[in-house]
Amino acid sequence: MFWLKKFFSPFLLPLQFVLVCGILGAVLLGSRRWRRTGRALLTLAVLVLLAASNKWASGRLIAPLESRYPAVGDLQPGEPLPPPLAACRYVVVLGGGHEDGDVRPALSRLSTSARARLTEGLRLLRLLPAAKLVVSGPGDNGGPTHARILADSAVSLGVERTRILMIDDARDTEEEAARLRALLGDAPVAVVTSAWHLPRAMALCAAQGLHALPCPTDYLYFTPPRWRLSDFTWDVPSLERSTAAVHERLGLWWSRLRGRT
To answer: 21: which residues sit within 8 A by CB, 6+ positions away?
Structure first.
C-alpha cells in the first residue's frame, strides 16, 4: 500500500496533473478520432494551472488547513506557560526532508519546511527545560537518516544530544504516529509540523491514542489585512500552496478510506 500510494499520488498533484493532461492532449491532437478529447485535455490543463497558481485560489485551498489549530504564541519572560504546553514531556518534530550527498552543515541540508519545524520545536524546547526532543525521518540511498540530520542540526544550535530521541524508520506520518505511540505511550507531547500538515498529523496521532498538543509552524499563506489587485494575480508560491493543500487532502482521504483516521 505504501509504494502504491507513493507511485500514484504525485500524478494527482497540480503540476504533474497539468503535465500529464497537456502532453496527452498534445498527442491526441494529431489524431482525427481523438482530436476533441485532446483539445479538452489541453483546456483542462490550462484551467488547472491557472487556478493552482492563482494567489487568491491557492489561499482558499490552504487556509482551512492552516487555520485549524492556533499557534503557540510568544511568551514574555516569567509568563506562565499554557497548561496544555506545560504538561508536555516531549517535543516531537515531524520529518520534513533534506538533501543528501553534500558536505554542507546539517542545518543547511534541511528543507525549508524541516528548518521551520525544527526552529519551532527548539523554541518550545527552551520553554520546557525538562522535556526531550523527538525527531523523525528515514534515510535514502545509504545516506544518514533524516532524524540524524535533524538531531545534528539541533545539537549545532545548542541542544544536548542526550536530550534527543530519534525515530529513523518511519516512512510517512502514519508510521510516525505508530512509532511515537510505541516509544512514548500516553505521555503528553507537543507535535510540531507545518500548519497545512497538522490536521492529518493530529488525526493520525488521535487514532493511535497519543496525547498530542498541536503546534503549527511553517505557514504558507497569510490573509492580507486589506485586499489589493495584486492578491488576485499568479505566481510560483501559489502553485506550491495549492500542491501542499491537494497533497494533504489526498492524504486525509487515503487515511479515512483505509480506516486509519
So the answer is: 41, 42, 44, 45, 48
- For the segment 15-64, what is each residue's pLDDT rounded down to a tens digit? 999 999 999 999 999 888 999 999 999 999 999 999 999 999 999 999 99
User: How far, rounded to the nearest angstrom, does the alpha carbon of residue 130 sit from its chain's CA centroid?
Assistant: 27
Neighbouring CB atoms inside 10 A of 42's CB total 18
Q: Tell the residue number behind the cell numbers 485551498, with chain if given.
A: 61
C-alpha cell at 19: 503535465
Domain locations along the chain: 2-65+233-257, 80-217
The superfamily in CATH containing domain 80-217 is HUPs (3.40.50.620)
pTM: 0.91
DSSP bridge pairs for 133: 91, 164
- Among 221, 217, 147, 145, smallest CA distance to 180 is for 147
C-alpha cell of residue 147: 532524524
CA within 13 Å, CB half, 170: 25
